[in-house]
Design brief:
Length: about 425
Amino acid sequence: MEFNVDEIRKDFPILHTKNMGKDLIYLDSAATSQKPIQVINAIMEYYKTYNANIHRGLYDISVKATEGYTNSKEKVAKFINAQSYREILYCKNTTEAINLVALTWAEQNLKEGDGILLTQMEHHSNIVPWQILSKKKRLVLEYAKVENGVINMDDYKKKLENAPKLVSFTHVSNVLGSINNVKEMTKLAHTEGAMVHIDGAQSVPHMKVNVKDIGCDFFSFSSHKMLGPAGIGVLYGKDEILEELEPIIGGGDMIRSVDFEKCTWNELPWKFEAGTSNIEGGIGLGKAIEYIEGIGIDNIRKHEIELVRHAIGKLEKVEGVAVYGPELGKDKIEGRAGVISFNIHGAHPHDVATIFNSEGIAIRAGHHCAMPLVNKVLNEPAVARMSFYLYTKKEEIDKAVDTIEKVKKVLRIKKHR
Ligand code: 7TS
């Protein structure tokens, strides 16, 4: 199918609304994506016509709801090339998915003195659960260095020599936009005998991800960043690993049988999903994947590469603007996702975002839940960030770049030397 951004935008009602009386320009898709009408309608249809609990009804609408929920797991499995939907655990979001790895596999397998290797570009959700666990079990946390916007692979290899038991890293940085070579990183970690978890919150929505090809043991992502509803996220885990793990939340649906003294677990993936599930979330996520597949994930990636090329080309010409991330240059664009963090010399990013808002433009400013990266590696208190998706237009980026001049004027920033 021909990729046509104007046609795509017709599916997103919010893109036709106003912000501060101006046409909304939404450049914060790394925080959360907008939702197409197909997803909104799928959720509405569920509530209007077949709302029922799943896995328990013998009546038609419950069977239909169960099918909708289970089918969505099959779609997720196919989308990331998992073996089967047994490997797809639903939870709240990427954060909860990572915590689930910490509270199950890591809790059940690590002991005092064991190491966990992360990188300096992680989101807090891939730092804090490990810090909590490390404190409890006296583990050793290390971070592979980030330099010039990318992971220093020599440092990564050196830290792997300390034989960490688990390595957990992001696929795409939500601040730098860098795309990590996760297949190579996984291979290296496995060679040293480590388990591998990958945070795919910023990759799965934007590029083809094949967990089997990558070879990782666990992989996490969120529905709300990939056109689906909030409140549902995915933890992929290899069947044989999940099979061995003990569940941590007990209750209805996750058991096969319960007696007064003991119980037995349900089969995967239900062993990890106690209680009534986020049914509308599953159905909405299934529809979001259908939508992405209709457009083609590779077409989305191509569109975003063009947007980044366009944005970098424009930003490079603006005086007094620092762009963070992997080295620039035309041949390097493909190593970047549609995330561009920047600062305007002499302007606090919060002022930048406020002035952008007055022009109808939504961007994010702050530490982007990656304080160690922003404060210690980039050495900034905060950065402003534009992020793109399939519905972003070059004209919107032009408007954003033009607004930088307005920021300079409003804040009376003198010519930068
Ligand atoms: N990992 C990465 C790389 C992320 O970018 C985010 C969210 C998360 C994990 C957590 O996802 P959640 O769905 O559990 O919240 N990132 C951002 C962001 O960049 N701006 O707002 C949320």
